[in-house]
Amino acid sequence: MARLSAAVLSLACVLVSVSVRPAAAQPVIQPRVIVVAGWENGADSGDAPGEYQDWVEREHLSETVPVRGVPGVIFRRNDDGVYGLVLRYGSSDLLTLALDPHFDLTKTYWLFTGISGVNPDVASVGSVAWARWVVDGDAVREVDDRDIPKDWPYGLYAIGAARPDTLPSAANHYGSVTDVAELTRAYPLNQGLARWAFAISRQVRLDDDPKIAAARKVWIGYPLAQKPPFILMGETLGAERYWHGASRNLWAERWVKLWTKDAGTFVMTNEESQSNQREMRLLASRQLIDPERIMVLRSASNFDMPPPGIGPTQSMGDEGPGQPLAFDNNERAGAPVVRELATHWSRYRDTVPMAQ
């Protein structure tokens, strides 16, 4: 009986030791490049594309990768270290990914993609632009344009400023902010990296669409709006308001100039770029990502104002016909940059590429 008890006790000790032994640590994943898309129609592949599908299919992002705390699939990868992230739950997915201990994102390059409205003064539908700044168009004072002073061009102006097209004169309008310089609405990207990416992609052959080509002809007086799709450098303006029209296009041009000290050019507008970059700036402040490795590539699905002779309400929300072309050209323009980074990782892991 004593021998049996000793044997049982010995077995129990073995079982306890096994049960409390920590599980083998999973290797930390270090993505080389993450392509970020804002949304997708239906499935990630095999049906009508959204912002994500062309990237998933053409870059063979066939393996799904779980992210802690996310119930669905938002993260995919291929065998070359290229990952795709679709923000199904908005910019908070960026924070969720960065806080997942299974990932180390400190050396990761980020390519934020998506479709936008385009400024007809500088580009055409189907064109693609590498941004040097993402400009925030949300934090504004607003007076109805029917009530503005007669010498004002529109009723939107900076908080802390006295009129449109002027910078704030005081910081205390933002409460805890004490330095006017902290009120900037322009989030700078790594311009050397943006120029490097542009140099790689600028010779890419973009696609065109016969219906889109025919629609360009009505843009008399806007020579760049009449051109076939092309690749350029220019800024992205993010604003949750879905605005449209010539007056607001003028505001956007001047707003971008104002906050970039006349160095930026307004090209693309959408509703989420500013939120994404606010999140990335927060992650950078916590040393979770490298802000010098962020790129933004937007493609034009529609114009942000109507063509001559057409009212704004007739053309508001007309991005549908140009969306497939914008999805297509976004991936075409960005793919060579992604592949260069991933396939020559030993060159770019510790040294961020730059162009003059």
Automatic annotation (TrEMBL):
Pfam family, one: NUP
Keyword field: Signal
GO biological process: transmembrane transport
UniProt-listed InterPro entries: Pur_nuclsid_perm
Superkingdom of origin: Bacteria
Signal sequence coordinates: 1-25
The name this protein goes by in its record: NUP-family purine nucleoside permease
Organism this protein belongs to: Acetobacter oeni
